[in-house]
Amino acid sequence: MAIMTGRYSNKELRNDGYYPVGISVGKPRFSTGYEIREQCYALAPRYDMLKLGYEEYKAEYFKKLDKIGVDKIIGIVQRLDAKAQEEDKKLVLLCFEDIRKPENWCHRTLFAEWWLAHTGEVIEEMPEADALKQPKAAKPPEEKVEQLSLL
After folding, report:
1. What are phi and psi of 74, to 5 degrees?
2. The pTM is what?
């Protein structure tokens, strides 16, 4: 199986060689420019996990996957991959975060870590052609100019 992970706003997904599947709590409210073929909530985090810090989130997400079970998750991914292969496409599991930014992390990379530990198979992150957007420089504070009185 050749599975990849990525983010919904990766423009490479507009090319026809991919079978995009959402694994997020919600779906994009923006136009992606491609069809999201399925939404797989089994691989999504629980909504209550979204405000947790990294370590607690990771532990809770792995607990969720373990509760579903390795065999069942392998079956889910194999079913999705079979659909992708029927169309001669690559399966890509998607969510929102831009993990190219060092401060960002995401459950899709945690899923890839969990998958590797349980199957020995590596899931690569889909490359992005777009440059990483740099934050806009903050506007310098305006100087307060006091009005002088002539009288």
Report:
1. -60, -45
2. 0.82
